[in-house]
Design brief:
- A hairpin with a 2-residue loop joins strand 1 and strand 2.
- The longest helix has 20 residues.
- Helices cover about 45% and strands about 15% of the residues.
- It folds into 2 domains: about 110 residues, NADH Oxidase (3-Layer(aba) Sandwich), CATH 3.40.109; about 170 residues, NADH Oxidase (3-Layer(aba) Sandwich), CATH 3.40.109.10.
- With about 325 residues, it is α+β, with helices and mostly antiparallel strands.
- It is globular and about 55 Å long.
């Protein structure tokens, strides 16, 4: 494998994903990168339709394309080049005629990670949020930006209700507990407790607490508070099919990487999108006719938490 391809794949491997499952594999054929879904990392109870899995793959695809651009190369992209939904994208990299390297976008991808803290009481300028809408247009999905406090509060209520419903499901809780890690974990995936501000001792007991204790109300209250205090909530809406899910993931990654350039942090909030029928009420709040596919909050926060673990390039290579 070319060193240049290996450089690109380092950015593929650090993309965000639901529960930090990293549900992707890559194969390399000459100057072509093939991005595959890894269904062994599906979340059967929290993501039964694999919507979040394909959104995660879209984020990995966007990181790959950002890396190619950032390193000064060009590419051709083909979605779903085979008759199944396993091969997500074929990216043919053009190494001739290399342009200038864009270190800003490369560094922003390295710095970007979910920041689940309560953000500062500081507005995000409207010209920035308007520029994010432009990042969605060419991919055929809609970006809804919610700045109004009343609407954010309504969305927070949906998130809280969805969280309570999800935590009533024993299978959901068991699955979630499998992806929560203690702070000293050596695993290269999953969600360590430090990402949720857990002390190390507490983090060792967190999977058991999720699995066996009734923490629904406290978690719902926390998520409601986080939504209410975030300057901006963004929801990406589109058609409810695999291609739109992948494109929604691309738009999500475009926005959060651009936000990182501006020192704006982000974190996904999935309950109102994935649980039950709450997405229908979310559509009414947004005034959108398309299904919500990704929801996340953005804001300022100076403290930089430790990033979640990621698999190496060798670990994501397909046999």
């Amino acid at each position: 494998m070319k060193n240049e391809i290996s450089q690109i794949l380092k950015y593929t491997s650090i993309a965000p994903s639901s529960h930090n499952t990293q549900p992707w594999q890559v194969a390399v054929k000459g100057d072509t990168i093939l991005l595959y879904a890894d269904f062994s990392r599906s979340l059967h109870h929290s993501d039964p339709d694999n919507r979040e899995l394909y959104v995660s793959l879209g984020a990995a695809l966007q990181n790959t394309l950002h890396a190619i651009d950032g390193l000064g190369y060009n590419y051709n992209l083909e979605y779903f080049p085979e008759s199944n939904n396993e091969l997500i994208a074929k990216i043919s990299v053009k190494f001739d005629g290399r342009g200038n390297q864009n270190n800003e976008i490369l560094e922003a991808m390295k710095r970007r990670h979910s920041n689940r803290n309560k953000y500062e009481d500081k507005d995000i300028p409207e010209n920035i949020t308007n520029s994010w809408k432009e990042l969605a247009k060419d991919l055929g999905v809609e970006l809804c930006v919610v700045r109004n406090k009343k609407d954010r509060s309504k969305i927070g209520d949906l998130v809280a209700a969805g969280t309570i419903d999800a935590m009533k499901n024993k299978a959901f809780k068991k699955e979630l507990s499998k992806w929560v890690r203690h702070n000293l974990t050596k695993a290269s995936d999953g969600m360590p407790g430090y990402g949720f501000n857990m002390p190390t001792v507490v983090s060792f007991f967190s999977p058991l607490a999720i699995k066996y204790l009734n923490i629904a109300s406290s978690q719902a209250k926390l998520e409601k508070t986080l939504i209410d205090s975030s300057p901006v909530v963004c929801v990406i809406c589109g058609k409810n099919n695999t291609l739109s899910w992948v494109k929604a993931g691309r738009v999500y990654e475009r926005i959060v990487v651009d936000a990182e350039k501006k020192n704006i942090k982000s974190a996904t909030m999935t309950a109102a999108v994935e649980i039950g029928e709450y997405h229908k009420e979310l559509m009414r709040i947004l005034g959108s006719r398309e299904r919500p596919l990704v929801m996340f909050r953005l804001g300022y926060y100076n403290k930089i938490p430790k990033p979640t673990p990621k698999r190496s390039v060798n670990e994501i290579l397909r046999d």
